[in-house]
Please model this.
Amino acid sequence: MILDTGASTNIVDQDIYNKLSTYGDIRLQKSNAELYAYNTDTPLRTLGKFTAILESKHKVTFADIHVIKGNAGCLLSYKTASDLLLITLNIGTVNNCPLTSDLLLLNTPKFLMVLEN
Model:
């Protein structure tokens, strides 16, 4: 499962759902949610959702998990990852921050060098 801080929904694909179902009866509930992959206009094909108890070393939480058709992979949302104390958001103050375009121009050669290597 990939922890995706940009994801607002927990997702497992149909293949993983089928494997999980061999351990017990996981009934899907109807979901009216329209889910989209990043930067797409076509909604994902959802089969439904279920509520699960998720556990980390630090915490236990309940979360809705949407099941999508196919074998696209699995995502853990920002909220669930935060609830499980897998990530924390530290907000500080930034002073004298250059404009984004200036920042991009200053860092472009370094970025390109990383891509080329």
Confidence is low (pLDDT under 50) at residues 101-117.
